[in-house]
Amino acid sequence: MLNAYLDHYRETFELKCDGLTREQLSQRSASPSTVSLHGLARHLAGVERWWFAINFAGLDLPMLYYSDDGPDQDFESLDGDPSEVLRVWRAECKRSRDIVDSASSLEAVGAVARQGSYTLRWLMLRMITGYAQHDGHADLLREGIDGAVGV
Which domain holds residue 110? Predict the structure, then answer.
């Protein structure tokens, strides 16, 4: 059930980005916000990698779209092609699914303890709530771009 909900929110985000031009994907919401669908894709790719691959699985991978000098570069620096960013996001989602599928159970504990240990069940719930929030942002952005609403 957790997998199904998380995949539903991932698919919803994909639909919010579907059929838009590079310029539309990079269009920001009302100032001073820096949120765009392009930025959300960068952010979500980084979140997938950070929580599932780096923290839960303990893989030694570099951060995506983040540095100590530029912690908000996922939203602020929209360099690169948004379609490539979406490809990276899809690849990170696949890696996350593979990590979940290979876990012994939902009670498996993450390899890296950040602010205490956490289970895969906790991580799945955290990701579901995060995607739900960002899908709401994506829905508002998409409506502002071309009037499309809903899924």
Answer: 2-146
Which tens digits make up the pLDDT trace of 51-62? 999 999 999 999
Q: Tens digits of per-residue pLDDT, 70-92?
A: 888 888 888 889 999 999 999 99
What is the per-residue pLDDT for 151? 64
Predicted TM-score (pTM) of this structure: 0.94
CATH code, domain with 109: 1.20.120.450
Contact status, residue 52 vs residue 95, Cβ threshold 8 Å: yes
Count of domains observed in the chain = 1
Q: What is the secondary structure of 86-143 as a DSSP string?
A: HHHHHHHHHHHHHHHHHSS-TTPBPSS-SSS--BHHHHHHHHHHHHHHHHHHHHHHHH
Does 48 map to a domain? yes
Residue 151 lies in a domain: no
